[in-house]
Design a protein that fits this description.
heterodimer; A: 5-stranded antiparallel β-sheet; 4-stranded antiparallel β-sheet; 9 helices; 11 strands; globular; B: alpha+beta; Arc Repressor Mutant, subunit A; 2 domains; 3-stranded antiparallel β-sheet; 16% strand
């Protein structure tokens, strides 16, 4: 079960400073969020919201990492995106007034704030700049989903897995050694991100390990040869 | 968009076109490029198999329009959410469904979107004004395969089709086919 905990006011949130939407909110607007929000602790593997449920508020990640995924037939999963500290979840459901399109699950212990829908929409309604930034965020999401279609229809498995590793590097960064991905995922989750079966993911990662492109250390993956990995991902831009 | 439809495509690295979505009358295209401030369009918009009328709004006019009518921004939020949902559903279908299931899903989706009730209600159908070539692009199947499958669906009485149109005759049975 999720556990309610005390969270600092939005003004003091370090993650918010890097958030595209909320970095420029006024103190008054932040006060509206702070006065109405709640904080919850989610253990690794716990669901934050479920695909198909109605959204009643906005989730902001105070700390931790989350995967947003859709369940297909025969329990096959598709990871839509990952989110980390300072990022928000569930906003599309609020804006479109539709049920959640995906499920959000903590991939490590996470603290997540919850702002009621009415408060978020109230601030959005009165802040034209925030509306513009929200549109920008949605167009970025749209671009990413279009890119994913191209990858799935056109890119071979090796390219998709190489690109998935680069996406994870972009999202979570590297550890202090400058090589190891700053996130621990199962092979299945990497496959779900790339749109590849778990078996193929294991085989492909093992091949990359043998070729010295990556180094596998249990669930941790070090990107040893970035040039080669970028080349394998066939990224034109 | 004023009438008919536009196909929104992009090219893969080998130059092969990949269908993304289609724009119907009253829809806006080019939003991503405008809001992301991209210098180049990331997609190509081309007229479908029938000519269509499009109004071009230059960037600076669109900016003025947004300033003069802030409510448009709130409508854009909904439009973009719907588009992302469509793209994500397509991705999921591409990953998890067989080509046959994708064909039926596409037909059901288009029927719901076009929502054109046949005037006489006789073939109890929803009409889809797309060519088989366009349907093949949307599904991500070869034209030959798609033609074979829709011919089979016609023979079983589920659909009827002609040049640039297709009518669903038995929506319920089609739905059941995608639900296993």
């Amino acid at each position: 079960m999720k556990k309610q905990i005390e969270v600092p006011p939005c003004q003091d949130c370090q993650g918010r400073i890097h958030n595209h939407l909320f970095c420029s909110l006024s103190d008054k607007e932040l006060d509206v969020f702070s006065a109405n929000k709640g904080g919850n602790f989610y253990k690794k593997g716990q669901n934050i919201f479920y695909e198909g449920n109605r959204g009643h508020g906005l989730y902001c990640i105070y700390s931790g990492k989350v995967k947003v995924h859709k369940l297909g037939d025969e329990a096959k999963e598709q990871i839509v995106r990952f989110a980390k500290e300072g990022e928000i979840l569930g906003y599309r459901s609020l804006l479109s007034d539709e049920p959640y399109n995906a499920t959000a699950t903590a991939i490590e212990d996470s603290v997540i704030c919850y702002v009621p829908k009415s408060r978020f929409l109230e601030v959005l309604e009165n802040n034209s700049k925030l509306t513009f930034k929200t549109i920008q965020l949605l167009t970025r999401d749209l671009k990413a989903s279009e890119k994913k279609i191209i990858n799935i229809t056109q890119k071979p498995v090796l390219e998709r897995i190489a690109e998935a590793l680069l996406i994870l590097k972009e999202k979570f960064g590297l550890a202090d050694d400058g090589q190891t991905l700053n996130v621990v995922l199962t092979r299945r989750e990497i496959g779900d991100l790339a749109g590849v079966t778990t078996e193929t993911t294991i085989r492909t990662l093992s091949d990359l390990n043998k070729k010295g492109v990556v180094r596998l250390q249990g669930k941790r993956i070090a990107l040893v040869n970035m040039n080669q990995l970028t080349h394998l991902a066939n990224l034109a831009d | 968009m004023l009438d008919n439809h536009l196909k929104i495509l992009t090219n893969d690295q080998k130059g092969k076109p990949v269908f993304l979505w289609f724009a119907k009358p009253n829809e806006l295209v080019g939003l991503t490029t405008y809001f992301q401030n991209d210098r180049k369009y990331t997609c190509t918009a081309i007229a479908g198999d029938m000519p269509c009328k499009v109004i071009f709004i230059p960037n600076h006019h669109f900016t003025k329009l947004l300033k003069a009518y802030p409510a448009i921004k709130h409508q854009l939020l909904k439009i973009l959410c719907d588009r992302i949902t469509f793209m994500e559903k397509r991705t999921k279908n591409m990953l998890h469904q067989s080509i046959d299931e994708r064909i039926i899903e596409t037909l059901l989706f288009l029927a719901a979107k076009e929502n054109h009730q046949a005037p006489d209600h006789k073939p109890s159908g929803l009409r889809i004004n797309f060519s088989t070539k366009e349907l093949a692009e949307m599904v991500g199947a070869s034209l030959e395969y798609l033609r074979r499958r829709i011919k089979h669906l016609k023979n079983t009485g589920l659909i009827d089709y002609g040049r640039n149109w297709l009518t669903i005759r038995d929506m319920n049975r089609l739905r059941l086919m995608t639900q296993h």
